[in-house]
Amino acid sequence: MSKELDYHFSQLTQQWIHKYLKQNKRILIIWNKKWYNSGIICHDCGHIPQCHNCSVSINYHKDIHGDSFGLCHICKTQYQLPTSCKKCHKTNIKAYGMGIQQIAQRCKQEYNKDAYIIDSNTVNSPNKIKKVQDNIQTQQIIIGTSILTAPLQSRKPDLIIILAADHGLHIPDYTATENNFYHIHDTIHHHQTSNFIVQTFNPEEPSIRFACADKKDAFEQNNNEFKKAHRYPPFGEIVVISYKNEIESRLHNKVDTVYKELLYLQQKYQTENMEIYTTPPLVYKMFGKYRYNIVIKGMAIRWFIDIVYSKLKLAQKWFKLDRQAAGIL
Questions:
Q1: Rounded to 5°, angle at Cα 125 from 120 and 127
Q2: What's the 3-state SS for 297-312?
Q3: Domain residue extents for the chain
């Protein structure tokens, strides 16, 4: 996609959409971003409005009447669409990022076809699933999130288009590559079609290359070598001690105190080969509470964690211990 003028649809994608629509065939477009867009940004100062309760940008959507409204996808707080920047008070604010609603709108404008949207909100009950299965029988373009990795019981698509196949690789998660591989591989494999387009800025990325080539064994070998080299599970253990508080300064003081106590115990019990560090989670604030993690990583560390839990009395201090943590760098 680095050679394309259109950020979302490549020239090949557009050609194939035209071709398959003329042949009255079914097209499935996968884009793992719900609603209309990712948020809005001020083009003068760069400010992006965030939720008051959660440290995430406010996503903006369109209702059935075409009116825009803001929504936090974590706490579900709704916001009005601003007319000026809250920080610099200028009016040069624009939307960024494309959600599945906007992709459906584009299909209507460019191909004169109504696209049917499927996401977690449309298939979260048996009755809704049945309704979707009935409705999609006559639809030529279906747009869905990663929930469509597992296909619905219906006629299989003739063409699958996966947009931004490297989108999930940019988060601090050692399982990101693995999750990305299975998202692409299972979407193509489970829908049982050999006609697919996978768009990416990094075609040499192993998770994308192996998924498109249907080389599951080769990917798993490559991924296990990475995990083994960095001592990630199952070749090592990761334990996360988490804490949250409504007062940010108190959060940092509490975490810093426990972190120093852990370093003392590490030295006392001579476990220098163990990594101990602090890091914020991907979402720093949720439901009005700030959050922080202490990560302990190493080989056979359960005995040390038992000592930590009893000596530091973590439960009494409102620290939460996850002995089988995954996805933390």
A1: 125
A2: EECCCHHHHHHHHHHH
A3: 237-322
Architecture of domain 237-322: 2-Layer Sandwich (3.30)
What is the DSSP pairing of strand 27-30 with strand 141-144?
parallel
Q: In the chain, at which residue ranges do the beta strands (DSSP E only) sit? A: 27-30, 39-42, 59-62, 68-71, 78-79, 93-96, 115-118, 141-144, 159-162, 196-198, 237-245, 275-279, 285-286, 289-298, 320-322
CB 175 within 8 A of CB 183: no
Distance (Å, whole) CA 46 – CA 36: 20
pLDDT in tens, 158-206: 999 999 999 889 888 889 999 999 999 999 988 888 899 999 999 999 9
Residue 14 exposure: Cα atoms within 13 Å on the Cβ side: 12
Tokens 């903006």 belong to 60
Cβ–Cβ under 8 Å, residues 116 and 91: no
Indicate the SS3 state at residue 102.
helix
Q: Given the structure tokens 């700030």, which residue do they identify?
A: 290
Asked whether the beta carbons of 283 and 51 are under 8 A apart, the reply is no
